[in-house]
């Protein structure tokens, strides 16, 4: 067990220190042990950091109090990541731990590389039963909640005594504060803002966060994937560890930067890349290869900046140097990367200050033409001259 300062969440780290970091969050009433059959395998390719909720496992109960919210837990996870110098990380969490991951992806997108939300919800239903459970636990401790836990956590006939023991060892006041957070949790409005590639995993027999909750998350997050696990209830990492392991391993597999062609196609479009490839000659092939590997395989593939941010930088640099053919191509790319004409106009206006009014003047003319073409009745041909990238 790692010795953790009482102001931080208790955590357990495994895997090479230089591997891409992956944080694993628990569900209510459980500890890092929830990931016992999943984390060791994931740690072959990741620096895996499992954390405990306040008052659960090894975390101090006083880290949250009555009326806590998901944001309070999210801030604690960020403090833990900061203490480990993890500026950016991938994240998987079960139930309450999954909701914390959603909160992080909505409110701190710069920190979350990839996200997996397992047996969780963006809104854990009517707050009434959570408030009643909090009141019961504050009054009587965890005994009655523990008696019925197996029925909510596992399919009939399956059990995991270690997890039930952990529940009984949880601090009642911290457990109740987590129930407060679940009662007030509503992350649905932010789902469309999540940009981290997201996998949603549901246990088909989960009565606590049924598959409909997972579908709501997957439908709300652009591009999210959904996996439903048969023969799994709420604590799928304990009940179906091999299936959860495989889903997470594939989702978090370190990305091949490779040739960069896939990213180039996503940003510049198939039509452009096909044309550039068709035009390639023996003379230009080394340059094509260089561009694909470095510009697209290294720089545009690096997740530290979003594609929108990279588009803004690229537009500015092209204006500064007066590369108008490339500017036209990258205005199209900027639109593909999610920038609105208004945002593109604001970036060009700023170049008027830093690159000079004549440079911005020409850039506005180029961008206006391209945006009008994109807006036109038929998509205008991709007029990108002889530019090879
Ligand atoms: O223990 C339960 O009754 C399920 C609790 C729940 O849905 C929230 C969580 O597991 O984090």
From TrEMBL:
<feature type="domain" description="Carboxymuconolactone decarboxylase-like">
    <location>
        <begin position="287"/>
        <end position="368"/>
    </location>
</feature>
<feature type="domain" description="AB hydrolase-1">
    <location>
        <begin position="26"/>
        <end position="247"/>
    </location>
</feature>
<dbReference type="InterPro" id="IPR012788">
    <property type="entry name" value="Decarb_PcaC"/>
</dbReference>
<dbReference type="InterPro" id="IPR003779">
    <property type="entry name" value="CMD-like"/>
</dbReference>
<protein>
    <submittedName>
        <fullName>3-oxoadipate enol-lactonase</fullName>
        <ecNumber>3.1.1.24</ecNumber>
    </submittedName>
</protein>
<dbReference type="GO" id="GO:0047570">
    <property type="term" value="F:3-oxoadipate enol-lactonase activity"/>
</dbReference>
<dbReference type="InterPro" id="IPR026968">
    <property type="entry name" value="PcaD/CatD"/>
</dbReference>
<dbReference type="InterPro" id="IPR029032">
    <property type="entry name" value="AhpD-like"/>
</dbReference>
<dbReference type="Pfam" id="PF02627">
    <property type="entry name" value="CMD"/>
</dbReference>
<dbReference type="InterPro" id="IPR000073">
    <property type="entry name" value="AB_hydrolase_1"/>
</dbReference>
<dbReference type="InterPro" id="IPR029058">
    <property type="entry name" value="AB_hydrolase_fold"/>
</dbReference>
<dbReference type="InterPro" id="IPR052512">
    <property type="entry name" value="4CMD/NDH-1_regulator"/>
</dbReference>
<keyword id="KW-0378">Hydrolase</keyword>
<dbReference type="Pfam" id="PF12697">
    <property type="entry name" value="Abhydrolase_6"/>
</dbReference>
